[in-house]
User: Fold this.
Amino acid sequence: MNKIAQAVVVAACLMGAGTAQAQLGGLGGLLGGAKSSGGDIGASVGTFVSQSAVLSALTSQSLVAINSAFMSKEDSAVIKAELNAVNKLTDAGEKNVRTKQLYESQSAETKRLLDSGDMKGRMATLDAEGRKQIGSALLNFGIGGLQAVELSKTGQALVGQAGANPMNLTKIMPVKDTLPLLGKVVSDSGGIIAGVAKLAQGAKIDVPKVTASSKPVDLAF
Assistant:
């Protein structure tokens, strides 16, 4: 986890981040209920899954907001519709799967925009609304990225604890299924999101600092 943590710190620095602490506002106590001595960890797993869902939704929405700022109205409408459809799902399992798919597709699109130079060429031409959208999305992703480090540690601890009680082996599967996406969020924080933040700063876009009291902002786009 040291390399992961370092990657997030790099991303936070590029975004002008302040204190990078685990307990950031808006996402709640991500470590709550994770402590166990090998007993029934069902409640802790439930808490972990719920908190992971909140984090996944936050970062997915942030990517959609970033990408839509550089898309045509038609393409932007498509990904916004997908985001809205995912948000309306009531089945937790289906929602988690669709959120993961949305995150991965939008992460790939952000990378494409960065690597192709399209984002660099258009960042400075964004109107006031687009500039605010980018800054707010970077703030939200920064919060999610920092939290993903601690939540990943919690998930790994739960997996380790499950070995002390065979009855927990099936209960821990949702945690194992969630960890790869959390790792992706952390990796993207020090990769593509750091790249977006650097371009934004170069275009004189205000990127709010991520501090211990930071809370996600509403992305009305």
Q: What stands out?
A: The radius of gyration is 18 Å.
